[in-house]
Specification:
Helix content: 40-55%
Largest sheet: 9 strands, mixed
CATH superfamily of the largest domain: Alpha/Beta hydrolase fold, catalytic domain
Low-confidence stretches: none
Distance between the termini: 40 Å
Order of helices and strands: HHHHHHHHEEEEHEHEHEHHHEHEH
CATH architecture of the largest domain: 3-Layer(aba) Sandwich
Strand content: 5-15%
Number of domains: 2
Structural class: alpha/beta
Number of strands: 9
CATH class of the largest domain: Alpha Beta
Length: 435
C-alpha cells in the first residue's frame, strides 16, 4: 500500500504512461471512418477542434466575467489542456451517434484516457498533488492531533534562542501536528490547522522560536501547503542548516471551505481579519512555546493566501512584522469586475473597501524595519504584473523588499523551489540568526 501511495504524479512513469495512452487514444478518436471522403473528414476534424476551443474559451469567459465564479483568469496553459477532453468527448459523440448505448460505453475508454492525460498535466502545472498519497488525502490523514506535551506548560517558559544549544539529542527532522484554532472573537468556522515543529522544539530545553503563519490559495485549504508546498521537507532542510532551529509554522484556514473567499477582511461576508489578526495569534501565544515578541512573527501564503498575507502585514504590522508572498493578487477580489466585490462585501461602499486594500495602506503608511518577499512564476504574466506593482509600492512604503520571478514556472507551487529558500533567508536575516 505504501508503494502505491508514494507513486509520483507529476513526473516519472505515471506521466509517461499518461502521455502515451492519451496520444494513442486521441489518434484513435481522430481516425477516418470507412467510406468517408478525406476532404469531408478533414473539414469535420477542423470544425470539431474549432468548436472545442470556442466552447472552452466561451465557458471561461462566462465563469470569469459573467458568473464571477473565478476572480482571475485561468492560466492559458490550463485552458489549453482542458480542450483535449472536450474534443475527445465531441469526437466520441459524433463517431458513435448511430451505435447502441452498450457499444458507446465500451468505446468510451479513449475519452477517459485523454481526460486522464489532461488531468495529469493540469495537476503538474499547479502542483497540488505530487503523489498518490497527496491526491487521496492519505498524506495528511495520518498526522497526529496536537498533544499536551507539545503545548505550553504554565511555569515552564522556553529558553532564549540566542546562544541556544540543545540539551541532549534532538530528532533529525521536525514533526507535524493538527489542531483546531477557534474563531473566538471572529466567529469564523474553519478547518483544522497544521503545525510544523522544527527539531529544536523537541529539545529538553525548548527555545523560544519565531512564528510563521501560512495560508493556502482559493480554491484550496491548509493541507495544500503540506502536499503541493512540500512544507515539511523544505522546513527540515532549513532547520538542518540552523542547528535544528526553524520557525514554528502554523498553516491556518483563512477561508473556511475549499471554494470560500472572504477577502481576508472584516466585511458582510465574514470577520476574517479578526480571525487572522486576533484569534490566531491569541491561540498561538497561549498554546505553543514560541517567541512572544512579534518582531519575530511573519505571515505568508500562496495565491489568495499571499494576497491575505500582504493584507495582514500592512493592516497589522504590530502582529506580523514580515511577509512572504507567492503569486499575490494586486488586491483581494471576488470577481474580475471590481464593483461586484465592493457590492457583495461592503454594500457598494468603495471607500470602505479601498481603505483596507494593501496598495492604499502602503500609500499612506510606512513600514521601516519590516521586510516583504514577493515571488511569481515567469509563465504567469498576470501575476508577474501584480508582483511588479506590489514591489514598487512596498519599497515606497519603506519595506525591505526582495523578489523573484521564477523562470519556467506558471501559477504553480513549483515557484517555491526557488522562492521558499530565498524567503526563509530573508526572514532569518530579519531575525538575526547566525547559526
Amino acid at each position: 500500500m505504501q508503494l502505491i501511495s508514494n507513486i509520483r504524479l507529476v513526473d516519472g512513469p505515471v506521466l509517461w504512461v499518461a502521455w502515451i495512452a492519451g496520444v494513442l487514444a486521441m489518434i484513435f478518436l481522430f481516425r477516418k471512418p470507412g467510406g468517408m471522403r478525406f476532404v469531408r473528414w478533414l473539414v469535420f476534424c477542423l470544425v470539431a477542434v474549432a468548436f472545442s476551443i470556442g466552447l472552452v474559451v466561451g465557458t471561461h469567459w462566462l465563469l470569469v466575467y459573467v458568473i464571477s465564479f473565478f476572480p482571475d483568469e485561468v492560466p492559458v496553459a490550463v485552458l489549453v489542456w482542458i480542450v483535449p477532453p472536450v474534443l475527445a468527448l465531441l469526437l466520441w459523440l459524433t463517431a458513435f451517434r448511430h451505435a447502441t448505448w452498450r457499444a458507446r460505453l465500451l468505446k468510451l475508454l479513449p475519452v477517459v484516457l485523454v481526460a486522464a492525460l489532461s488531468a495529469v498535466q493540469v495537476n503538474a502545472y499547479f502542483g497540488p498533488n505530487r503523489t498518490v498519497a497527496d491526491l487521496t488525502g492519505v498524506a495528511v490523514s495520518e498526522i497526529m492531533a496536537l498533544e499536551s506535551g507539545m503545548t505550553h506548560q504554565p511555569g515552564k517558559d522556553p529558553v532564549p534562542l540566542t546562544g541556544w544549544k540543545p540539551a541532549g539529542d534532538i530528532p533529525a527532522d521536525g514533526g507535524l501536528r493538527t489542531a483546531q484554532i477557534p474563531g473566538t472573537e471572529s466567529g469564523l468556522a474553519t478547518r483544522n490547522a497544521y503545525i510544523y515543529f522544527p527539531p529544536a522544539y523537541f529539545a529538553a530545553n525548548r527555545p523560544a522560536l519565531p512564528v510563521l503563519v501560512l495560508m493556502a490559495g482559493q480554491p484550496g485549504g491548509p493541507a495544500d501547503w503540506l502536499t503541493g508546498g512540500s512544507l515539511r521537507p523544505r522546513m527540515d532542510s532549513f532547520a538542518a542548516q540552523h542547528g535544528g532551529a526553524a520557525p514554528v509554522v502554523v498553516v491556518v484556514d483563512s477561508t473556511g471551505s475549499q471554494q470560500g473567499n472572504n477577502l481576508c477582511m472584516d466585511s458582510s461576508i465574514a470577520r476574517a481579519d479578526t480571525y487572522l489578526a486576533r484569534d490566531v495569534p491569541a491561540w498561538i501565544s497561549s498554546t505553543l512555546d514560541v517567541d512572544l515578541d512579534h518582531a519575530r512573527w511573519a505571515v505568508g501564503g500562496f495565491s489568495y493566501g499571499a494576497t491575505c498575507a500582504l493584507q495582514m502585514v500592512t493592516r497589522h504590522p504590530e502582529v506580523y512584522a514580515d511577509m512572504i508572498a507567492f503569486s499575490s493578487e494586486r488586491e483581494p477580489a471576488l470577481a474580475k469586475e471590481r464593483q461586484k466585490t465592493v457590492d457583495a462585501a461592503f454594500g457598494g461602499d468603495t471607500a470602505a473597501f479601498d481603505a483596507l486594500v494593501p496598495l492604499t495602506v502602503m500609500s499612506t503608511r510606512t513600514f521601516p524595519g519590516q521586510a516583504a518577499y514577493f515571488a511569481a512564476g515567469a509563465e504567469d504574466p498576470q501575476f508577474v504584473a501584480s508582483l511588479n506593482e506590489l514591489v514598487a509600492a512596498a519599497q515606497s512604503a519603506g519595506f525591505s523588499v526582495r523578489s523573484d520571478v521564477v523562470a519556467g514556472v506558471g501559477h504553480s507551487w513549483d515557484e517555491l523551489n526557488v522562492g521558499m529558500p530565498n524567503a526563509l533567508a530573508m526572514l532569518s536575516q530579519q531575525w538575526g540568526w547566525t547559526q
